[in-house]
Amino acid sequence: MKKILVVDDKPSISKLIVQFLSQTFDVHTEEDGLKALTWLQEGNVPDLILTDLQMPNLDGIELIKRLKESGYFKDIPVIVLSSKEGSEDRIKCLRLGAEDYMVKPFNPEELLVRIEKILSR
To answer: What pLDDT sits at residue 35?
Structure first.
C-alpha cells in the first residue's frame, strides 16, 4: 500500500483527508513542516506529501524548499493544499518543485484523482 504524508496544522482537514484516503493509502499526519521533516529523517519515506502552506514552526514553502534541496527526499512528489488562492503562491510552489496546487476547500474526490495520476507516473 502506498504511503501518503499529510502536513497540516488543522486537525479537521487532516481528519477529512485521512478518512477519505485511508481506504486506498496508508496515511500519516504531522501538524507542521518541522515535525514532518523529523518524521522523514527517522527513516519514513512516503510516496507522496500533501502540505498546507500556512503552518507554525516551518511553513509549506520552507518545507518544499528543504525537501527539494535534500538528496534523499527531492523526488517525493508534493501537492500543496492551501486556502491561498493567488497565482503568485501557486507559481512559487510550482517553481520550487511542487507537483500540484489545490485551493481549500477542495473536493476530496478530485484530490484522489490527482494523487492517483501523480503516483501512476
So the answer is: 98
DSSP string, 89-106: HHHHHHHHT-SEEEESS-
- Which grid cell sits at 35? 515535525
Helices in the chain by DSSP H: which ranges? 11-21, 33-41, 60-69, 87-96, 108-119
Whether 8 contacts 49, CB under 8 Å = no
Residues 65-104: pLDDT tens digits? 999 999 999 999 999 999 999 899 999 999 999 999 999 9
Maximum C-alpha span of the chain: 35
Strand, helix or coil for residue 112: helix
- pLDDT reported for residue 84: 93
Which pTM does this prediction carry? Answer: 0.97
Q: Do residues 21 and 27 touch, judged by C-beta distance below 8 A?
A: yes
Strands laid side by side in the 26-30 sheet: 26-30, 3-7, 48-51, 78-82, 100-103
Give the type of residue at 86: G
Give the SS3 label for residue 19: helix
Q: Can you tell me which residue has the cell 497565482? A: 87
